From TrEMBL:
This is RADX protein. InterPro entries: NA-bd_OB-fold, RADX. GO terms for molecular function: single-stranded DNA binding. It comes from Hemiprocne comata. The gene is Radx_1.
Length: 306
């Protein structure tokens, strides 16, 4: 009875010090960010963003420092949370924003919920899905799945979710974050097919905060990637070099991790599973490849152009 809504929070936050508890569902989850510096003596300089929603709209929630090590892996997309003794801060203007699956959902972008070990010490409770009641009015997680046949018609930087059967996975490679820096991004290329086109999805998968999944992508696994961005080489032939790359809010799932995920109810996911049941495993196995160097986008055939 003492709950408040995200809409009420936005209207009253400046005039309050203590806030009523809120009940929200996690809609998006960012990768874990490490912001430690040698001169700052913080025990656990970590931060993670989540987008959470109730019946009134969606807002950002930030998990700080040692709360990340305690809660990051437990709080998944679709998890229902009861939050007590949290702080409200003005939104950080430069953070990335996921594309919501439900375009009608209202977004509260001026403030964010801040969860900390102290000032005040936040109390987080995970509500099991089986006791979540419809009258709480919590929105369902929605997705933007596309098929491979739809990809060619999508613009650069379009956000989408994909599911496919992995036919190729390259070795892990590194790219410098900055030209002369010592930090690297870790990534690998993968191909996945879904039966709607002769061409595979070409996926540039950066290591998100899911090392147990990233390291075990292999041919013949069912791969789901959410919040991917379309990349088109607009300077060259536009149809030749279209691929998908991960964003800050991408989540990756492979066979063994799909049970209980909200996307299992999606129509395009069900269509894909139906298609896989019509395929011969031995036939697909012959077409799979693993490892090796994968130069993409491919250099031109003519050396002068290169």
């Amino acid at each position: 009875s003492k709950l408040t809504s995200l809409a009420q929070l936005e209207m009253t936050w400046r005039s309050r010090v203590h806030f009523h508890p809120i009940l929200v569902r996690v809609m998006h989850k960012s990768r874990l960010r490490y912001y430690g510096k040698p001169e700052k003596k913080l025990d656990m300089p970590y931060q993670a963003y989540f987008e959470v929603a109730d019946g009134s709209g969606m807002m950002s929630m930030v998990l700080w420092n040692s709360l990340c090590s305690e809660w990051y892996n437990s709080v998944k997309v679709g998890t229902v949370l009861l939050l007590e003794q949290y702080a409200i801060k003005t939104s950080y203007p430069f953070k990335t924003e996921p594309t919501p699956g439900d375009s009608q959902m209202k977004r509260f972008a001026t403030i964010e919920i801040s969860l900390n070990v102290r000032d005040p010490p936040t109390k987080i409770s995970i509500i099991p899905e089986e006791i979540v009641k419809p009258e709480w009015g919590l929105p369902e997680v929605k997705y933007r799945f596309i098929t491979r046949s739809e990809l060619d018609g999508l613009p650069n930087n379009h956000s989408c979710d994909v599911i496919g059967l992995v036919t190729f996975v390259g070795r892990a490679e590194r790219a410098r974050k900055r030209e002369y820096g010592e930090d690297f991004w870790l990534y690998r290329w993968a191909h996945a097919i879904d039966g709607t086109s002769d061409q595979p999805f070409i996926l540039e998968l950066f290591a998100t905060s899911q090392p147990d999944v990233f390291e075990h992508i292999h041919p013949m696994t069912y791969l789901v990637c959410t919040q991917m961005r379309v990349v088109r080489d607009l300077s060259e032939n536009p149809s030749s070099a279209v691929y998908l790359t991960t964003s800050n809010e991408s989540q990756i799932f492979i066979t063994g991790w799909h049970k209980g995920q909200p996307y299992t109810k999606d129509t395009k996911v069900k269509n894909f599973i139906r298609w896989t049941k019509t395929q011969s495993e031995a036939h697909q196995m012959k077409r799979t490849v693993i490892g090796g160097y994968y130069p993409f986008p491919r250099p031109p055939n003519d050396f002068l152009k290169y």
